[in-house]
Amino acid sequence: MILAVFLFFKPAESLQFIMIIFGFLLIVNGLMHLISYFNIKSNEARLFSYELAQAIIAIVLGFVFIINTTLVSSIFPFIIGIWIIIESISRLQLAFNLRDIPNSKWSILLVLSIFNFFIGLVFIFNPFKTAEAITTVCGALLALTEAINIYESFTFLIRFKSDKK
What we know:
Layout lengths: L1 H8 L1 H29 L3 H5 L3 H17 L1 H30 L7 H20 L1 H38 L1
Helix pairs in contact: 1-2, 1-7, 2-4, 2-5, 2-7, 4-5, 5-6, 5-7, 6-7
């Protein structure tokens, strides 16, 4: 519940904290790739492996996320916006590919891909406010989930006590 309140009332600080956690996760991921690279026994397999490159990139990005949270917090929503737009364009192509297949519901995919495209634009043109809004919504949803959990616990306890009598 404390996390929910923090996310809801301090979205900017929460976003920076999330970037630090994400940075640590990237470092751990990079170390796992590094271990994997050095555990490859076959020279032929190592020849076609990208584990070392993935390890270096993940570790460097992890440290960037940890050291410069303010910069990463402001760029991260922009990157997410670009990713959403790229994904929506590929879904748009898929919708057009499905157009000639009967019962494919390609029009729903078309509408959703266009909708996602505009969401990506919002992320790109207003990244920080979008990130704050998403963080606030996550806090509200987390608080709601915790309230439901508390209600269920009390309901269970009341029912359990009444069944014991």
